[in-house]
Amino acid sequence: MNDTHRSRPIIVVTDVRDQETDLRARLENATEHDVRTVPVPADLESLLDAADAKGDGAAEGVTDGDRDGTETSAANGGSRSTDTAESATPTGDALASPIAVVLELDCPGDIQSVLQRVHAVAPAVPTIVAPKTGSERLATVALRADATEYVPTNRDEDPIDRIVTTVRSQPIERSDETDSRNERILGDELPDEAFVIGEDGTYLEAKVRPDSAELYSMAPDDLPGTTLEDAFPDAVAAKLQDCIDRAIGTDGVRSVEYDAETTEGSRRFEARVVPLDQRIQGRRAVVWLARDITERAQRERELRSRQDQLETLNRINAVVRQVIETLVEAPARDAIEDEVCEQLVDSELYCGSWIAERTGDGQLSYRTGAGEAETYLECVRESIDHDGPVSQAVRTGEIRTTNRLLDDETVPEPLQGAASEDDVRSAIAAPITHEDATYGVLTVLASRDDAFSERERAGFRLLGETIGFTIMAVKNRQLLFADTVVELEFRIDGGDTFSFDLSEEYDCTCSLEWAGTTANGRTFQYVTVDGLDGDTVLEAARTHDSIEECRLIHDGEESCTIEIRLAQSGVRTLENHGATIRDVTVDSGVGTCLVEVSQNAAVREIAEALTVIYENTELVARREVDRPVRTAAQRRNRILDRLTDRQLTTLRLAYYGGFFDWPRESTGEEIAEAMDISPPTMHQHLRKGLRAILEEFFEGSGHS
């Protein structure tokens, strides 16, 4: 190695807020190069300009006058201190262009800015991003800003080895002087392989490092006289011959990457091809310098893979957001499902997408699809594999993936043939669910192996749940605004729930007043029991397996109302399928359940869902019911008709007096004094008035 190359420094760019650098001393011990530090945002160009100047000052040195001038400037209030001048001012050998720039930075903005400055001034200088704390965001910034390497220093692997390897693997920039070109390239650290190859692809000379020679079945001394076609498959040999032809044709240095089979499997190499001026055996030839870059290529693939995963997740999240926005305008389930399939295919990440629904007989039926995998989609449209991942996703409620579809022996032959024709290599099946209701399954197809990582699986799991919530919301909206609904009456002969067991044992009647779920997912029911006192009901409830908690609300001699918290609720199951509960009664072990659904609801699906909770369920009646249309004025008049004068006066004084504000503008005593009644009487009128309003509001609203 010549002295000029040896003198080229490594620049370490550090954070100005962090006065310490972990890399400088270690790099000085690991390499023969000087290591200089530059804080951000220092004038980095002062060191990089030498790359363009090609050593104008380095060749002739810096005069004493120049040094005196620099010292005088600093002494007279210059912007850089003595320490900074040592790092950032080009003097002596510092005027040689740097051999590499290492960014010991953790701020994405600083990394991007420094890389842009380095590439603008010295595009041939390799750049290594070496943050103290690595992250996917920093890796993505480094990749997009064309960093040569990304080496986080907080990993178990020693970053110094990777930094030094990257520095040594970079070629020295080409000189305009032809005579010195080959010398400067050969003056670099010895590559793994060095050959002289004739213009016809014949090996003329060969030199391989001992540790590299062990990878090959043919000894280097046996290579001269053989050709590229003898050493490589036809396609690779043609690619390498083309590189030689272009190098000789343009008289310029060329580079090429290729794979070679070795005793340790396939390895990745990068070659620099340099045309020779003199002819050998009467023909043109090139020097072929090759380096094993398998590990670097693997790191680059991993970095690109992480970037692809981030972009994929961003696109999946964008689809989820769009689905939620679609909910506002989607008139029906079909519109939601069509939109999802189209958006997934439009993302250009996937070649196909389709949705199947579960039918009343427990089978799967194709609903809609989109994408270029037309043969595959036609195959699943005609028949869905009832033992495959799609059916498994519906049965288990879990994501199912096939990451190497063409090699999977469990895939039916017709489907595998269609996948091969459309180049479908991976598939993911995400159940479309909302709480305990499963509406179907979304299947997405990709033209690459191992397309669905764990993070993508999580994204599709969320997408399936979002679609399920949207479908449920659309069903409820259709039911809410429908003028005509369908009333379904179910008969339930026995069940393993508290109401059935209680009515059979004590010959009483249980009637559902209201059922619902709180924000934290707890399911509550308010049940009135006729023919039994509260203490007996409480004692029976506290020992029943289906009840988690129970509380007595109202007690009488022959009737009581209780609040119960259930582990599983048939009422909630019906609500998840877009049904509104109108009435549920259980008498002597036989239940009657009245529900309302929209006219286009899947009745068989609802009956099947109820059967999951109550085994002996029968649909005994189906009726179309016209809903009465009430205007706001009519409802207001109905409320006023139910209030007494005293109740209405109390409500008005409380409302306008600020009794319902927080904090209160008027107390109950002040309202009572204004009415010239006692506070207890005022509260009695207030509560009865509020109850009348709430009864009117909830009347006819069912139990949803």
TrEMBL record:
The reply to whether GTP-binding figures as a keyword in the UniProt entry is no
Compositionally biased residues, Polar residues: 71-90
Checking SUPFAM superfamilies in the record gives: GAF domain-like, PYP-like sensor domain (PAS domain), Sigma3 and sigma4 domains of RNA polymerase sigma factors
**Domain of life, per lineage:** Archaea
Q: Where is this region: Disordered?
A: 55-92
Q: Outline the extent of the Bacterioopsin transcriptional activator GAF and HTH associated domain.
A: 483-636
**Record InterPro entries:** BAT_GAF/HTH-assoc (IPR031803), GAF (IPR003018), GAF-like_dom_sf (IPR029016), HTH_bacterioopsin (IPR007050), PAS (IPR000014), PAS-like_dom_sf (IPR035965), PAS_4 (IPR013656), RNA_pol_sigma_r3/r4-like (IPR013324)
| Ranges of residues in domain PAS fold-4 | 188-297
Please name the Pfam families in this protein's record.
BAT, GAF_2, HTH_10, PAS_4
Tagged with keyword Amino-acid biosynthesis: no
Report the residue ranges that make up the GAF domain in this protein. Answer: 335-471
Domain HTH bat-type as annotated: residue spans? 643-694
Q: Spell out the PANTHER family in the cross-references.
A: DIMETHYL SULFOXIDE REDUCTASE TRANSCRIPTIONAL ACTIVATOR
Name it: Helix-turn-helix domain-containing protein
Species annotation: Natrinema salsiterrestre
Instruction: State the organism's lineage.
Output: Archaea, Methanobacteriati, Methanobacteriota, Stenosarchaea group, Halobacteria
